[in-house]
């Protein structure tokens, strides 16, 4: 009897340690269409905030398009040429801020707002 109780206690402690590692809300219980209670482990979230990164990239392209449509293509290209002749960091900035197809498309869509 003593051995059974010790075995039971070790199993309970093992389960408690696993539950503590997983956290309180590691599982979700739902009732199936048939009335059966189904317990599933929660999916862990993404480690990298993909949605935030995509929104930042989209915001950057919108910023470039706004600058392109506000200044006009000639003035924007002149400013990029000045940056290309500057330091290494300025040249890298000019390369990143260059006119690409996505920026051109967005600028064409935003352009009528400034005219």
Keywords, separated by commas or semicolons:
115 residues; mainly alpha; 2 domains; two-stranded antiparallel sheet; 5 helices
| H and E order | HEEHHHH
Give the amount of beta strand, in percent: 5-15%
Instruction: Kindly provide the radius of gyration, computed on alpha-carbon positions and rounded to a whole number of angstroms.
Output: 29 Å
* Number of H- or I-type helical stretches: 5
- Kindly report the spatial arrangement of strands forming the biggest sheet: 1-2
Counting structural domains, the number is 2
What is the straight-line distance between the termini?
A: 89 Å
User: What general outline do the C-alpha atoms trace?
Assistant: elongated
- State the helical fraction: 55-70%
Which stretches of 5+ consecutive residues score pLDDT under 50? none
Oligomer: single chain
The average pLDDT score comes to: 85
Structural class: mainly alpha
Q: How many strands, which pairing sense, and closed or not: the largest β-sheet?
A: 2 strands, antiparallel
Keywords: Membrane, Transmembrane, Transmembrane helix
Transmembrane segments: 52-70
Biased composition (Polar residues): 1-13
Region (Disordered): 1-21
Write the topology of this structure.
Blueprint lengths: L1 H21 L4 E5 L5 E5 L8 H22 L1 H12 L3 H9 L4 H10 L5
Antiparallel strand pairs: 1-2
Helix pairs in contact: 2-3, 2-5, 3-4
Notes on the structure:
Residues 1-13 have a biased composition (Polar residues). The chain crosses the membrane at residues 52-70. Residues 1-21 are annotated as: Disordered. Keywords: Membrane, Transmembrane, Transmembrane helix. The chain is mainly alpha-helical and 115 residues long. It has 2 domains: 2-41, no CATH class; 50-114, no CATH class. Helices cover 64% and strands 9% of the residues. The chain contains 5 helices and 2 strands, in the order H-E-E-H-H-H-H. It has helices at 2-22, 50-71, 73-84, 88-96, 101-110; strands at residues 27-31, 37-41. The protein has a two-stranded antiparallel ribbon. Helix 2 crosses helix 5. The longest helix is centred in the middle third of the chain and has 22 residues, at 50-71. It is elongated. The model has no long low-confidence stretch (mean pLDDT 85).
């Amino acid at each position: 009897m003593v051995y059974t109780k010790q075995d039971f206690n070790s199993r309970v402690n093992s389960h408690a340690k696993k539950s503590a590692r997983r956290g309180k809300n590691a599982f979700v219980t739902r009732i199936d269409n048939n009335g059966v209670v189904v317990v599933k482990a929660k999916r862990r979230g993404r480690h990298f905030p993909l949605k935030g990164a995509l929104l930042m990239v989209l915001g950057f392209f919108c910023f470039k398009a706004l600058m392109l449509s506000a200044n006009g293509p000639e003035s924007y290209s002149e400013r990029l040429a000045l940056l290309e002749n500057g330091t290494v960091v300025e040249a890298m900035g000019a390369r990143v801020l260059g006119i690409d197809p996505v920026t051109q498309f967005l600028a064409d869509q935003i352009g009528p707002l400034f005219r």
